[in-house]
Amino acid sequence: MTNTSHRDAAALEAVQETVRAARSHADAVELSLETSGVADQRALRERTLHQIDDYVLPRLDSLDAPLLAVVGGSTGAGKSTLVNALVGHEVSRSSALRPTTRQPLLLHHPDDEHWFSGPRVLPELARVRVHRSVSAGPVEPDGSAMDTVALVAEPALPAGIAMVDAPDIDSVSDDNRALSRQLLEAADLWIFTTTAHRYADAVPWQLLGEAAARDITVAIVLGRVPDGAEQDVVPDLRRMLSERGLADSPVHVIPETRFDERGLLPEEHVAGLRRWLTELAEDAAARSAVARRTVDGVLAQLAQRVDALADAEAEQQSAADALARIVAEATDRAATKVEEATSDGTLLRGEVLARWQDFVGTGEFFRGLESGIGRMRDRLAAFVRGRPAPPEQVETALETGLHAVIVEAAADAAEDIERRWKAEPAGSAVLSGRNLGALPSGFSEEAAGVIRAWQQDVLALIQEEGAGRRTKARLAAFGVNGAAVALMVLSFASTGGLVGLEVGIAGGTAVVGQKLLESIFGEDAVRRMAKKANDLLDMRVRRLLDGALSDQFLPLVERKRTAEDTAALRRLAPSLRSGLSGTPTTVGAPGTDTDAARSGGHHAQDLDDEAVSIVDPEEDHA
């Protein structure tokens, strides 16, 4: 193998690796959210995968394989009639029934059977081998077999080129239209049929514009041209082709006529087109030029699609991020609401206040505070001997009040998230059929568990701070549980233990606990413990709210792919544009070096002088 051959092989392998990477990324692109234009983006992804599987990889794996010519066109344009005329007998069903072609028919020379019998091209379509004689009549299309392709060995076709009779591009059947487009995107060249009355229709020109974008070789068959109309119709058709970058496409004009005794177009009417195909099939250099040019054009188009899919995925990620921000904002507001309620004295009212006063007592105990912290120790013994209400009653009241605050904040947040998501197209779609404005059934118990865990945190703070000998003795006089309850009350009345009688009832209530705790632990320690208790509660509540609300909403917009995955997909585009030659290809820009390949090599002679006539069999039936 020469150095040039080694370089060519290495370049081909690099292109194949890039295409396989593009396929892997395209298949993984996540388009689950209903963003603007997502239906078109999903269709683009499917078309991209089909294009890679049906054409790009098969052609790169076998650049010397026969060319695949797809005969396409609008309903009634005479596709099947043309195929029958080119092979010299009826092989494809033509009738007044619309659409005629339902199951695609692939005709090939017998020597080329191995190229098409396996899944090399159109791997998603199962093969149905049709064995028939020339006199057997046309292959009957199987309307229920849209996922198959009928293979017919046809000696009349030259080796080196195969032909597919495709469904109508404007069929009333969605499946037909999709299959027709899939087949056209798997082609090395198009034989595009139209008529003098319908050549300006929008649908064919949309596809022809895509053909120009792919730099694919296109032969135009203009049929049913009335006598004398050619001089007006053909120049207008050529003008339209030129405007769309297809000025070099050969045009085969076939005027109106009747069928011969075999029910086919007379031989001379398609002789020029048949000769063009035969010479192209027999010229290996011309075939290679057509194949390589089409591959480069498709790779350039694939680069555009890769960019478009990367943009689509980035748009999806942006929509998912926006919905996730709504969840985060609502969670933060809920946590802040709980923090405010547990630090401004809101909880120290009603039942909590009553139970606390029962616990510490009123009257004599409160008057004792006025005598100063120095006499507090003397009061502790009397306090204990007086057998006040147990601290558990205060603890229960605190737990009930805190639980109500947390549940209410979480419920408000869930309703807010649902409302704001419904205002977004992507959010509204994922919420369809779901009621996420209500909290999950287990949330109440989770909240209770968080509160109990925090109460244990407070108890641990008291025990840790009271580990010293002198402190332990003072703590024993009051009780660990009582001190813990006092610390809870203190943390609910202030931030950082800074409280005073001026804060009203809540402050007046909490100052009792503050003085009790200071008599045991000292002022600095109490301030530190109150701050720590408050922080621990905030942390646990935020974790609870974040987990509950995130688990409820975020799985609906969860993304498996990252921004780096999207960037990796986008980075493939430049290599694809470089194509087989390693030189970036400009999509849809014909040049002097590529025009021959686009029009079929040196066989791209104008076929007008060879053209004769065509009559659509549907009209001839009348």
UniProtKB/TrEMBL annotation:
Top-rank taxon, per record: Bacteria
Composition skew (Acidic residues), residue ranges: 607-622
The record's annotation in InterPro entries points to: Dynamin_N (IPR045063), P-loop_NTPase (IPR027417)
Note the SUPFAM superfamilies from the entry: P-loop containing nucleoside triphosphate hydrolases
Q: Where is this region: Disordered?
A: 574-622
Which CDD domains does this entry report, sorted A to Z?
Ras_like_GTPase
Signal peptide feature range = none
Record-annotated Dynamin N-terminal domain positions? 70-200
Q: What is this protein called?
A: Putative ABC iron siderophore transporter, fused permease and ATPase domains
